[in-house]
Amino acid sequence: MYDDISAVGPCAHGSLFSILFGQVGSGRMQRKQRVETPARRQCHESNGMTHSVDKDGFSTFRFSTEELPASDRAAILRDVIGRKFLRIEIEPLPNRAFRVEGTLRTLPGLGILSTCNVSVRAKRTKELIADSNDCLCLGIVSIGTSIINRGDDIATLEHGDAILLSAAEPSSVVCPAMARLIAVSVPSASLSPLVTNIEAAIMRPIPRGNEALNLLEAYVGLLEREIGFQTPDLRRHAANHVYDLIALAVGATRQTTDIAHDRSISTARLRGIKADIMNNFGQADLSIDITAARHGLTARYIRKLFEAEGLTFCEFLLSQRLQHAHRLLTDPRCFDRTISSIAFESGFSDLSHFNRSFRREFGASPTEVRVSVNDLRALGPDTGRDICGRRGMRLEDAS
User: Fold this and answer.
1) Higher-pLDDT residue of 29, 202
2) Alpha carbons 43 and 35: distance in angstroms, whole number
């Protein structure tokens, strides 16, 4: 039925990460070629599945039943994506159209899965827990409803709710309709010491509105976008912040609470604010007061968060607007657009202010940058990657 599935290479970090209940990496990807992208991303591709490892250490596994042959979807979902890769049993609910697609990203000590499920059941069975994987996984329902079972315990999670599960215990998740889930998996040995009673925390629903849970979801969003985590030290700190936030959400020890407020709460809040700015910098009226109100904080507190990194709110906002404008000005697909339309899309309401700020940041005017790009394109595609001595903020500087 799907005999063309063969091994071309193992998934990275296989012994670490469980998706809801299982672990990635016990299987191998199917055929097709290994390719190198401009970002030096090693990539294994297959029908419906892709595994890649980029130069910054992020391992990514993507899968979608929609890209599989219709006649084989259920079997490949069960035998390849489920049993072989994720070490879980996945099955469609009877007499319903089903769909499963997801993106898994792993770092040392941390795994993140974002998935959309329609009419499926995923089970970590007694047979599968023999693999000795004891990761703990915090599952967050971002859209829809999911029903969680562990023995006689049943929990129904709605939008915004979460629950902690163990890969060492049989359990299941049922998505009767469309549900989007975020699953954050960490080693039991890393999380357990931070929690007052880890056994009591497992299978105990965490209601929406939990501050640590909200901060965790925003922080994980940045990790998924691979923003600002390009060095081993930053990735290690990121994993520690996630451990702290999960512990706070499920019930941290007093010592962990004290450490986490100093080490992780402020970091997560700042990253959430930066993510907000990066999503909304095109709004010309975006201000520190508007952002503070959206996050339930004071403008003074946000100023202190940025001051700790030697920045101001306005400097970070301006840098995001300028970087966006620079990307559009150097994008051949936007050469028919006027400079003023690009400036306004980037959040500038004053064209003179935009021109002055742009020259100060990049050492050239917007017109000069666009002319230089046209000249360099005529010389070849690999010429002039740093246009006009560009010296704007790097992504890692935005962390």
Assistant:
1) 202
2) 5
Q: Which CATH number is 281-398's, of 3.10.580.10, 1.10.10.60, 3.10.129.10, 3.20.20.70? A: 1.10.10.60
**What pLDDT score does 293 carry?**
93
Class of 34-210 in CATH: mainly beta
Whether the predicted model's global pTM rises above the 0.85 cut: no
**pLDDT tens digits for range 276-306:** 999 999 999 999 999 999 988 899 999 999 9
Q: Which of 213, 243, 347, 235 is nearest to 286 (CA)?
A: 347
For every residue of 306-329, DSSP letters joined together read HHTTT--HHHHHHHHHHHHHHHHH
Share above pLDDT 70 across residues of the chain, in percent, rounded to a whole number = 79
CA distance 79 to 178: 22
Identical fold, 34-210 and 281-398: no
Which residue blocks in 209-347 are alpha helix, DSSP H?
211-224, 232-250, 254-260, 266-280, 288-295, 299-307, 313-329, 339-345
Cα separations in angstroms, 254 against 131, 138, 174, 204, 242? 34, 21, 35, 20, 17
